[in-house]
Amino acid sequence: MTDVLIRVMALPKLAQRTLAIALAVIMVVLMLLLFFAGFQALSDLRTGIDDNRYNLARFERMLAQKPVDDGQTAAQPDDTTSSFLTGDSIAVIQAGLQTRVNADASAQNVVVASVGNTPVLVIDGVQYAGVRANIQGNLPSINNTLFQLETSLPPLIIREATIRATNAVQVDGSPQPVELAAEIVVYGAVNPKGMQSGPESAGP
User: Fold this and answer.
1) Would you tell me how many other CB atoms lie within 10 Å of the CB of residue 186?
2) Gap between the Cα atoms of 48 and 51, Å rounded
3) Which ranges of the chain would DSSP assign to H, the alpha helix?
4) Collapsed DSSP state (helix, strand, coil) of residue 126
5) What are the φ and ψ backbone dihedral angles of 98, each rounded to 5 degrees?
6) Phi/psi of residue 156, nearest 5 degrees
7) What's the pLDDT score for residue 168?
8) What pLDDT score was predicted for residue 199?
9) Which of 7, 12, 27, 135 is 20 to 30 A distant from 92 in Cα terms?
10) Three-state SS for 148?
11) What transmembrane ranges does the database entry give (predicted)?
12) CA 52 – CA 117 distance, rounded (Å)
């Protein structure tokens, strides 16, 4: 290092001045690069947070629009095959519901930890068969799974949902997908014309 300084000091004044200007330019460029890199990192972090907030708000709105309250009058389903769950018995219908939950979750890369039957509900003379499922996945995948369950035919109702985040917060604050674990209770109206045997409720 000393030899370098000696050689620099031995250079002509013009060369020393040119070298000093070049070093100053390099320092300014490096500072600008660091500034823009930090600004871009903060921008990406903010974008990730905004996206997660948007998806979570959309997810909560969807849940708030669909619950069925025992104290309220449930909407009577249309008298069409596509509006009702059909099967020879409640047990058969609930088995079909379990298959449907597994299929919709698998299509969104959501893990179904467990799924079981729930007691049959009767609201305004209409029977509702249901299942309880524990599912795990990131926020968009869980959101899409619930959306698919409620919008595909025959239509289903997510009557209960308990959701919690499972991934730890990063110490450095870097954005990451929100991982969720959800327990949902899904019901669908049973077509009375499709029942060939008396109603039965399979245990969970």
Assistant:
1) 26
2) 5
3) 2-10, 13-65, 90-107, 139-151
4) strand
5) -60, -40
6) -115, 160
7) 60
8) 42
9) 135
10) helix
11) 20-39
12) 32
Residue type, 75: A
What DSSP assignment string belongs to 112-124?
EEEEEEEEEEEET
For 160, counting Cβ atoms within 10 Å of its Cβ (0-12 exposed, 13-18 middle, 19+ buried), the class is: middle
Strand arrangement of the beta sheet that strand 126-138 belongs to: 111-123, 126-138, 179-189, 157-165
The whole-angstrom separation of Cα 83 and Cα 190 is 9
pLDDT at 5: 58
Distance of CA 204 to CAs 62, 98, 116, Å? 26, 11, 5
Give the separation between CA 175 and CA 143, rounded to whole angstroms.
19
Q: What is the pLDDT along the chain (204 residues), one digit of tens a residue?
A: 566 656 656 667 777 678 778 888 888 888 888 777 776 766 666 666 656 655 565 555 565 555 444 444 444 444 445 678 888 888 999 999 999 999 999 999 999 999 999 999 888 888 899 999 999 998 888 889 988 888 888 888 888 888 888 876 555 555 567 788 989 999 988 877 655 444 443 333
Rounded Cα distance, 133 and 156, in Å: 14
Answer for the pair 120, 199: CB distance below 8 angstroms, yes or no. Answer: yes
